[in-house]
Structure formats: structure tokens, C-alpha cells
Design goal:
The protein is α/β, with parallel strands linked by helices. The chain has 15 helices and twelve strands. Strand 1, helix 1 and strand 2 form a beta-alpha-beta unit. Bound molecules: pyridoxal-5'-phosphate.
């Protein structure tokens, strides 16, 4: 069975085909794709010099089909759900998982149910899920409450439904492919991989990917994993759950990460670190990413660059190190935060003279 658009010769090969040898696929796994993966790794020289990391690269995961890295894992989770005969999938979400589940569910003809914290989802993500036909239930609680509820929904037997949060192991299997691409594009593993951390699935997936790539003899080394949480939602930094997580970076507003132990293992096995960055530091990096690198991302994504800058300022970063910062989601996801961070439009009458005056040229 083949689902999703299939161009005859695609410059963006299907993720399930390209990395088949590393994925838990069988002959019976449907071939699903919306064009996920194969995202750019760009050298960000101006930004790198500003933040104190001259060899800075950005892995632009906002260029996935629904605008975030979640699509890598969702294509595997949904294909495996189809393979097992599922008719419906369910997830809790800070937004991006719901957008991705809704899109892949739509392409695959599955019912999609989303449970999310009321009033805490960036507008673009919510609209993506609704547009794709997901049934979205908002609860008065946080992400951790929503995750508890969907775990229970997936366990009851009356309405069979497959859980596609990152506690579903197929999600991390798909997400690890980004680490393969980073090594392919660099020609080696980076020295440091900087990444925002919320539920801690992605840092765990990248670490798994780097290890598998090295174990397969395709890279000589693995990077130090540097994870960054928002200061108001930093349970892994404090070593205990945060009851009321708070941050402008809504995608990582999580107080009890599901992949806690895996993230700690990634940090410790790689000789890495998990640190907190403030909302002000996140927003400064968010603005600089757009203005110095041309990369418009959502606030959570900027935590990686904010963290690199913080470590460089603390003298903890070797300036010769090759650093890859993962930019997890697209800026258009969260237009409300963007609006608060950009200068206003300059207004002028529709004449050359008035526009010149408005520009300060006369
Ligand atoms: C844009 C963005 N960045 C980072 C994260 C954090 O990823 P994880 O929850 O796997 O730690 C998320 C999770 O929703 C996200 O949507």
C-alpha cells in the first residue's frame, strides 16, 4: 500500500525508504510520506560570531512538511499504526505533535484525536490540527495533565486508539534520522549538538541516532549533547518535576518530561549538559536567528542558540568546536509571539516623497 503524494523523481527521498536499514519497518509497513526529512544544515557565520560559536551550523527542522521535527517520528508512528490495523490515533500536545499527527492521520485516513492544554497552544499549530480534521479537546490543565489523559485513553479497550506521543517508541526511531543527516551533511559528527528540551524525546532520539551511526562505522565520533530547557520549565536542570511550568516557549512548557531517564543518559554518556535559559535569552536568540541568519523559528527552537551563547559567555565553549544547533520549528507557527517581537510597519502616503520621508531619506 502506498499513501501520500509520490513524485516520480524526488530530490527529497522518502524518509522511510532512505533510512530503512535503521528503522523497524517490515514488508507490511505502508509506504507513507509527506516529504519529511532531508532538511537543510546551514552554516550561520554572522550569528555564530555574535554568539561566540564561530563554527555554528543550524539544522532547519522547520522545513519539514508541517513545520517541525515531529514529522520524522510521526511518519514512522503512523505507518506502524496502519500496519497494526489502527483506525484512530491520539496524542497530547504543546502544539506541534498535534499538527503533525493531524496531517499524517489525514493522509493515511485515520481518525485523529488531540488533547491539549487550553489557551497554551500557539495559534498556527492549533489551526493546522483543526484544518486537517483532527478532533481537538482543550482541557483546563497543562501538558502533563493532557499526557496522563491520553495514556489512559490509549489503554481503555472500548474505543481502540493508538498513542502517537513520543512515548511511542516508533516516534524516536523516526526522529533519530535527523542525526544521520547532520553527519551526512557535515561529513562527520559535530563536536556539540545543541537542542531545546521539553518532553525530552528529541534529545534522546538524536543521541540514539548518533550512537547508531557510529556503531555502524559511518562516523568516527559522537557529539556532546547540550540540552536547553526554559528556566520556568526546567525539571531536568533542577532534578525534580515542575508543577506549574511557565515560559514564552510554549512548545517546551513541560514540567514532567516523559523521556527523563533517556535524556539523562544522553547527557551523561555523551559528556554533555542540560542547562536552563531565561525567556529573555530565548527571545534575544529568536530575534538574532531571524536578523543575523535569516532563520525565522518559533521561540522554543531559539533555546538551542540561546544556550550556546550562554555557554560561550561562561567560557564553557571551545571556539574551534563545530556546533550544530537544532532549530526545531518554524516561526509562522506562533504569529502572536512574533508580533510582540518585531518593529511596527512604517506608514506613509502613496507617493515617492512620502515614502522617502518615512524612510528618513529627506
Ligand atoms: C518546536 C519544538 N521544539 C522543541 C520541542 C521539545 O522536544 P521534546 O519534547 O522532544 O523535548 C518541541 C516539543 O514539542 C517543539 O515542538
Amino acid at each position: 500500500m502506498s499513501l501520500g503524494a509520490r513524485p516520480s523523481s524526488s530530490p527529497r527521498p522518502r524518509l522511510l525508504d532512505r533510512f530503512r536499514q535503521f528503522l523497524p519497518l517490515s514488508e507490511a509497513t505502508p509506504s507513507l510520506s509527506l516529504g519529511e526529512g532531508a532538511t537543510p544544515l546551514i552554516r550561520a557565520e554572522r550569528l555564530g560570531l555574535t554568539v561566540g560559536a564561530p563554527n555554528l551550523y543550524l539544522k532547519i527542522e522547520g522545513q519539514n512538511p508541517t513545520g517541525s521535527f515531529k514529522d520524522r517520528g510521526m511518519v514512522v508512528a503512523v505507518a506502524k499504526a496502519l500496519e497494526s490495523g489502527a483506525k484512530a490515533v491520539v496524542c497530547a500536545s504543546t502544539g506541534n505533535t498535534s499538527a503533525s499527527a493531524a496531517a499524517y492521520g489525514a493522509a493515511a485516513g485515520l481518525e485523529v484525536i488531540v488533547v491539549l492544554p487550553r489557551g497554551q497552544i500557539a495559534l498556527g499549530k492549533l489551526l493546522q490540527a483543526l484544518a486537517a480534521g483532527a478532533r481537538v479537546v482543550a482541557v483546563d490543565g497543562n501538558f502533563d495533565d493532557a499526557l496522563r489523559i491520553v495514556r489512559a485513553l490509549a489503554e481503555q479497550g472500548e474505543h481502540p486508539v493508538t498513542l502517537v506521543n513520543s512515548v511511542n517508541p516508533f516516534r524516536l526511531e523516526g526522529q533519530k534520522t535527523a542525526a544521520f543527516e547532520v553527519c551526512e551533511d557535515l561529513g562527520r559528527a559535530p563536536d556539540i549538538l545543541a537542542i531545546p528540551v521539553g518532553n525530552a524525546g528529541n534529545i534522546s532520539a538524536y543521541w540514539q541516532g548518533f550512537r547508531e551511526y557510529a556503531d555502524a562505522g559511518l562516523a568516527d565520533s559522537t557529539p556532546a549533547m547540550w540540552g536547553f530547557q526554559a528556566a520556568g520549565a526546567a525539571p531536568l536542570v533542577h532534578g525534580r518535576p515542575v508543577e506549574r511550568p511557565e515560559t514564552v516557549a510554549t512548545a517546551i512548557r513541560i514540567g514532567a518530561p516523559a523521556s527523563w531517564e533517556k535524556a539523562m543518559a544522553a547527557r551523561d554518556e555523551s559528556g554533555g549538559r542540560i542547562e536552563a535559559v531565561s525567556d529573555d535569552e530565548i527571545l534575544a536568540a529568536y530575534r538574532d536567528l531571524a536578523r543575523l541568519a535569516g532563520v525565522f523559528c518559533e521561540p522554543a527552537s531559539a533555546a538551542s542558540v540561546a544556550g550556546v551563547r550562554k555557554m560561550a559567555a561562561a567560557g564553557a565553549l571551545d571556539p574551534d568546536a563545530t556546533v550544530v544547533a537544532v532549530i526545531t520549528g518554524h516561526g509562522l507557527k506562533d504569529p502572536q509571539t512574533a508580533e510582540r517581537q518585531v518593529p511596527g510597519v512604517i506608514e506613509a502616503a502613496p507617493t515617492l516623497g512620502a515614502v522617502a520621508v518615512a524612510l528618513g531619506w529627506t
